[in-house]
Amino acid sequence: MVDVVCIGAHPDDVEIGMGATIAGMVRQGLSVAIVDLTNGEPTPFGTPETRAVESASAASVLGVQRRTLTMSNRYLFDSVEARTELAEVLRELRPRLMFAPYPSDAHPDHIAASAIAVGARFYAKFTKTDMAGEPHYPARLYHYIAVHLALHVKPSFIVAAEEGDLSSKLEALRSYRSQFGANERNAAIIGTMETRARYWGSLVGAPAGEPFFSPEEIGIASVRDLV
User: Fold this and answer.
1) Is residue 114 part of a domain?
2) By the 8 A CB rule, do 103 and 143 touch?
3) Using DSSP, how many helices (H) and how many strands (E) does the chain show?
4) How many whole angstroms separate alpha carbon 125 and alpha carbon 138?
5) pLDDT digit string (tens) for 187-209?
6) pTM flag (> 0.90)
7) pLDDT tens, position by position, 104-126
8) Which CATH number is 45's domain given?
């Protein structure tokens, strides 16, 4: 069982969108799992074997466990089968919190991953079903941004990150050498992620930050929780 499950269409999506937040959660004692719906291949400079090594290295940097499911990169689609596969993982890991990609994106796989996550959250609570595991319904679902569009959407909240959390995010991203080192087209992405994180952090008086979006209303126990 874990406290938090973070879902991505491909290895590196979660790190791009919320790597600093994950580092912060782990530092604070929460257990976190990243679930990649696909192995992310093929890509111009990667292989399934290379990507598996890279994603394991990134998970080690962040201090999380990782699962890679059997869905197909480039052909990801919201279906009963996809929802069921992810729902069984949710029933096994039993997180209180779920994070999934933002639903608007130029990449169809990211859009599908968002829909699959929403559907799987609902499926995971089914009782009369052939799915493995006991029913479970994650209490909260939030969306992170890892989009291929130049969007600036007003977030529901920003998670403030410490300098060390940002460093862990960038180190995790550097694990993906086939994506950001070997591919000149993507070489600037890591620097861009640092710039964006520092921008979001500046809005809440922190060294860095990451934006999140909630489809449901958010309640807090005390105003002391606000920064």
Assistant:
1) yes
2) yes
3) 7, 7
4) 9
5) 999 999 999 999 999 999 999 99
6) yes
7) 999 999 999 999 999 999 999 99
8) 3.40.50.10320
